[in-house]
Design a protein that fits this description.
With 324 residues, the chain is of the alpha+beta class. 38% of the residues lie in helices and 18% in strands. It contains 7 helices and 12 strands. Strand 11 and strand 12 form a beta hairpin. It is elongated and about 95 Å long. Bound molecules: dinuclear copper ion. This is C-type cytochrome. It is found in: Membrane. It catalyses: 4 Fe(II)-[cytochrome c] + O2 + 8 H(+)(in) = 4 Fe(III)-[cytochrome c] + 2 H2O + 4 H(+)(out). Keywords: Copper, Electron transport, Heme, Iron, Membrane, Metal-binding, Transmembrane, Transmembrane helix, Transport.
């Protein structure tokens, strides 16, 4: 019993801080939701306390001897008037919040498409030009409200960065919109919040909230073509990439790889994580991912290149790691 209490306590505390917590808000919308949560919990405790006190009171008196007037007051006041006033106040407080996350943005518009099981991320230029394409990582400027256009092609997914705001469903054939306004810099984890198949739990991403000038510099860098391989190992990796036909599914801008099936890899080495938030971005993890993707993410479209020689895998990983 004591162990169970301890376990429940630890589980509750585990959600209190960190980069994927609704209880540690880092954006305007998440803060509104956190305030709403606090008010709701306090009000629920008040209601529960009042009912518990009434219950204790009636178990300690002789109910049949209670004056009729007092009984009526308790029933009408405690059973009807108090709950109606409290629940009415909560409703009035929470209703105006419903549209808050659909506010218009300040300028930046990002289109996010849910795939099975990763995220296609496109930064749309204000002038209607070519989008800057990335994947599995969302970057946003702090202090500005950015608009997200959400959609999906296969099944229903749900976009959720708990530290920044509420969740919004991504529905095939329909565009949903939401906006987010990060209030401090940091890296916050996002997670698909709607069961979408075998690897739903492995459909995560990082959201990097940056100072506005850093964001502008990053976006300009992200819009560039891929860097040429820097050393002989990476050069060999680029040859393996071409020989194995990786470019049929993946695009690397500035090369012959123009596939659209899998994530764009133009600046893959600059991302914080790999495989949609499931592995760190480093050479060993890249080798494991390329060699055993199907084992790491059940039913993923990426085949496991487990027949590749260790040297080829290492060269390929070095090439991708250098695409920053
Ligand atoms: Cu996508 Cu769950």
């Amino acid at each position: 019993m004591r162990n169970a209490t301890l376990l429940v306590g630890l589980l509750l505390l585990a959600g209190c801080a960190g980069r994927q917590s609704v209880l540690d808000p880092a954006g305007e919308d998440a803060r509104d939701l956190f305030d709403l949560f606090r008010v709701m919990v306090i009000a629920a405790l008040l209601l529960w306390g009042a009912v518990a006190l009434l219950f204790i009171y009636v178990t300690r008196i002789n109910v049949s001897a209670m004056p009729r007037k007092l009984a009526e007051t308790l029933i009408v006041g405690g059973g009807i008037v108090f709950p109606v006033l409290l629940l009415g106040a909560l409703l009035a407080y929470s209703l105006p919040m419903m549209g808050a996350q659909r506010q218009e943005g300040d300028g930046l518009v990002v289109r996010i498409t849910a795939e099975q099981w990763w995220w296609r991320v496109e930064y749309l230029p204000a002038d209607g030009g070519t989008p800057v394409i990335a994947a599995n990582e969302l970057r946003l400027p702090v202090g500005a409200r950015s608009e997200l256009i959400l959609n999906a092609h296969n099944v229903i997914h749900s976009f959720w960065v708990p530290a920044l705001g509420g969740k919004t469903d991504m529905i095939p054939g329909r565009e949903t919109r939401m906006s987010l306004k990060p209030e401090r810099t940091g890296v916050f984890r996002g997670q698909c919040a709607e069961f979408c198949g075998a690897s739903h739990a492995l459909m995560a991403f990082e959201t990097v909230a940056m100072a506005p000038q850093d964001f502008d510099a990053w976006l300009a860098e992200e819009a560039r073509d891929a860097a040429a391989p820097g050393d002989p190992l990476a050069q060999a990796g680029a040859e393996v990439f071409a020989r194995e036909g990786c470019g049929a599914c993946h695009a690397i801008r500035g090369t012959e790889a123009i596939g659209r099936v899998g994530p764009d890899l133009t600046h893959v080495g600059a991302r914080k994580s790999l495989g949609a938030g499931i592995l760190p971005m480093e050479r060993g993890a890249l080798m494991r991912w390329i060699g055993h993707a199907e084992g790491l993410k059940p039913e993923v479209k990426m085949p496991s290149f487990d027949y590749l020689e260790e040297d080829d895998l290492r060269a390929l990983a070095a090439y991708l790691e250098g695409l920053t």
